[in-house]
UniProtKB/TrEMBL annotation:
Species: Brevundimonas nasdae
FAD/NAD(P)-binding domain boundaries: 2-293
Keyword annotations from UniProtKB, A to Z: FAD, Flavoprotein, NAD, Oxidoreductase
Range covered out of full length: 212 to 521 of 528
Protein name according to UniProt: Thioredoxin reductase
Gene: ahpF
Organism superkingdom: Bacteria
Similarity field: Belongs to the class-II pyridine nucleotide-disulfide oxidoreductase family.
Coiled-coil region: none
Entry's Gene Ontology molecular function annotations: oxidoreductase activity
């Protein structure tokens, strides 16, 4: 059995693996896709101390760093089930989709999250070419330009407020007949001169010139009229979905599906830890996922030295 079994090979999982392997304990990492969301990213300009890098490059560095240590890397392996130990100090079991079963004294869950997409023509084609999902990451790339924010919930309205301070103009598009964000955010939004709010609107297409985004179309749900907006960026803010479908019943999740963790990164199951975008820890960012992964790694080690094997 492993001492530490990490599920997920993004920034959080890679950081956890490096921290535990450096303690000399037997570490395994199983990932559906080593690198995680970073593989889908182009420019990264907020990875502190590295002014500019690119997603695939950072993902390659993550793997290279993990490979400096004795870590059993199981790439292209999807976990299907977690069976936590019923006794303190006992072995936890992770069943993979291929039927294999892995046992470990501690487990670190770092399966990340995925942005919900609009699934309209042009969205995929112009991803990273004007279509963005993370205002903290890509906001500054649109300095002085025109953007739309899709979604009028808390994250959409927060994004619109944030972007309004950077870009020339923001069009906020909400499907419902009214915004769903907290009143305090809506009040703040209403004071901004360069934001236009459009409700009862369904985004139907992202337009581009083959290289980058040039606009979008939406349908007015009351009149069915089609409208076009010229702009350079589209921020999609219709939800970040944690990859926890396989964990229902195994550890405590919030109603949104995020894994509940304490300040040490421990879940509701002793010896099972979690880190990164999959948890309740706010602000889904690479540096934060790495810090949380390192913390979960150290917490797993601490658990090991304090808990008698059952
Ligand atoms: P992830 O990166 O999501 O990794 C999850 C890992 O778990 C992957 O290896 C995945 O394959 C694996 N996995 C999932 N389910 C299973 C399963 N059942 N079994 C096994 N493995 C599984 N952040 C920044 O700080 N700066 C940026 O500029 C930036 N730009 C971004 C641009 C885009 C387009 C996107 C999508 C995100 C961006 N982010 C950025 C956010 C950043 O990528 C995430 O916060 C970070 O990757 C989270 O790391 P993580 O390890 O928690 O999860």
């Amino acid at each position: 059995p492993f001492d530490v079994l990490i599920i997920g090979g993004g920034p959080a999982g890679a950081a956890a693996a490096i921290y535990t392997a450096r303690k000399g304990i037997r570490t395994g990492i199983a990932a559906e896709r080593f690198g995680g969301q970073v593989l889908d990213t182009m420019a990264i300009e907020n990875f502190i101390s590295v002014p500019h890098t690119e997603g695939p490059k950072l993902a390659a560095h993550l793997e290279q760093h993990v490979r400096e240590y004795e870590v059993d890397i199981m790439n292209l392996q999807k976990a299907a089930k977690l069976v936590p130990s019923k006794v303190p100090g006992g072995l936890h079991e992770v069943v993979l989709e291929n039927g294999a079963s892995l046992k470990s004294r501690t487990v670190i869950l770092s399966t990340g999250a995925r942005w919900r997409q609009m699934n309209v023509p042009g969205e995929d084609q112009y991803k990273n070419k004007g279509v963005a999902y993370c205002p903290h990451c890509d906001g500054p790339l649109f300095k002085g330009k025109r953007v739309a924010v899709i979604g009028g919930g808390n994250s959409g309205v927060e994004a619109a407020i944030d972007l309004a301070g950077i870009v020339a103009h923001v069009t906020l598009i909400e499907y419902d007949s009214e915004l769903r964000a907290d009143a305090v955010l809506q009040r703040k939004l209403a004071t901004l001169p360069n934001v236009r709010i459009v409700t009862s609107a369904l985004t139907t297409e992202v337009h581009g010139d083959g290289e980058k985004v040039t606009g979008l179309s939406y349908k007015d749900r009351n009149s069915d009229a089609q409208h076009d907006v010229d702009l350079e960026g589209v921020f999609v803010q219709i939800g970040l979905v944690p990859n926890t479908e396989w964990l229902h019943g195994a550890v405590a999740l919030t109603t949104r599906g995020e894994i509940e963790v304490d300040h040490r990164g421990e879940t509701s199951q002793p010896g099972v830890f979690a880190a990164g975008d999959v948890t309740t820890v706010p602000y889904k960012q690479i540096v934060i996922a790495m810090g949380e992964g390192s913390k979960a790694g150290l917490s797993a080690f601490d658990y090991m030295i304090r808990t008698e094997p059952a």
